[in-house]
Amino acid sequence: MTAVLGAGMSGLSAAYYLLQRFGYPATVYEASHRVGGWIRTERHKDKGFIFEMGPRTIRPKGIQGANTLQLIEELKLPVDPIKSWQPAAKNRLIYAKGQLCMLPNSLSGIFKTLPPFSKPLISQIKQDLVAGQKKLKLADESIYDFVERRFGAELANYAISPLICGICAGDAKEISVRFLMNDLFEKEQKWGGIIKGVVYEKLFGNKNKTAPAGLFGDSMPKLYEKSLKEKWSMYRVPDGLDTLPQTLRNYLQEKEVDIQLTSECREIIFTRNGVRMNIKGQEVEPKHIISSIPTHKLATCVKNQHPSLSALLMAIQYVDVAVVNLQYNIKDLLKMKAFGFLVPPIERIPILGVIFDSCCFDMEGNTILTVMMGGRWFEENFGKDPTPKKLLDTALQYLDLVMGIAEEPRLTRVHVLRKCIPQYTVGHTQRVSDIRRYIKHYKLPLTLCGAAYDGVGINDVILSARNQVESLRSLDD
Question: Start and end of every Amine oxidase domain (predicted)?
């Protein structure tokens, strides 16, 4: 038997690909009472809207995006796309220097001086061409330092830093460029500059670069080809994103995959013949474990037998995020149509950003907003255990300050997602490599997948599961 720890998207995907690859079901153990991890939807069908407490959209780009679309295609799920020309895809805002600023969304925009920048973006892009290459090859550095070095502090502060807040609720001055922006980092290290690298690889790179051998067979998924043709920027699954893990769970259970909820793994002991796990006080003995649970939880499980592995796992930090969902039964409350806005940390206000849900998708006459707060600055801004009222009051205060929305919402929800996003701090790629090297060295029947190891997005964790399952030669040896 193969055991999968965790029934978030990565764990469910691992069970799915195990079934495809080896033809027999695994057993999935989930500590909570539900599947889906941080994907969670609250439906208000009678009023025509939904609240998303976690992710709400998926991007169709690249191999990762194609892989997710293949899964959705195989599960026969409908999708609701946002095209690249729609306001929710085209318009991105930041709150800086006391106002909402539209980031350039066309080629002409980079030639204009637009707030909060003091000069046209083209002049900052030109800086990369004259910045030169560092004499020493870098193993890694922070995204902030990388962008500041190549393009200047303004771009680092007002474009990249808020972007990192949106991606992982983290501080760009701490997050690894090698992990999150490795393609740009390698271009700079190889060619001496980012723009130069983009141009040179366009001219001299591998023009026949395709998907990994065998990943999609002879042709790309039909939904992926459709997304390219119709120029999708992002998409959702109608009726809420948690329809995806729920549908995947139902599919797996029909194929005799055993999904056990409220079944937390408390200890893992590796034996000569496999593994012995403590699940709710009961011993379970699979031959192999695929773990998609957070590193700090896995660290606790292996600490007694492998304290060094536990320490490596514990070195990956996580942050708390507060999510405040708001419903107003007013259709045209938003003055600007956009996906939402992000707040650069340099502004030092206690929100990360706001998502304009009802601009992204039809909410039947309602204005739906989601305020994101905390992340790397959660305790600094709110203390260890803020009340829901404090978080709601903060969200409403800054909606009034930034957007001029003083109306009382009709319905609100406040959630604190504890340790929900790993922080890919400088050296993260090496840390992940060290963890996997330790497992390989001691020949532990343990495989790791998920956000902590292979990327933060839904696409990343699904492909992580697929790649890790494909790396297993046989589970019968």
Answer: 9-469
Report how far residue 386's alpha carbon sits from residue 406's, in angstroms, rounded to the nearest whole number: 23
Which residue is it, tokens 């699954």?
237
Q: Give me the phi and psi of 277, to 5 degrees please.
A: -115, 145
Instruction: Return the exposure string of 82-108: e unless at least 16 CB atoms fall within 10 Å of the residue's CB, then b.
Output: beeebbbbbbbbbbbeeebbbbbeeee
Angle between helix 143-151 and helix 121-130 axes, rounded to 10 deg = 90
18/467 Cα distance (integer angstroms): 11
pLDDT tens, residue by residue, 434-450: 999 999 999 999 999 99
The answer to whether residues 327 and 48 touch, using CB atoms and an 8 Å cutoff, is no
Predicted TM-score (pTM) of the model is 0.95
User: What residues does each domain of the chain span?
Assistant: 2-39+242-316+425-470, 98-204
Tokens for 428, please give them. 């993260």
Homologous superfamily, domain 98-204: protoporphyrinogen ix oxidase, domain 3 (1.10.3110.10)
Cis omega (within 30 of 0) for bond into 422 = no
Residue among 257, 205, 181, 248 nearest 26 (CA): 257
Q: Is pLDDT at 85 greater than 80 in this prediction?
A: yes
The neighbour count for residue 126, using CB atoms within 10 Å, is: 13
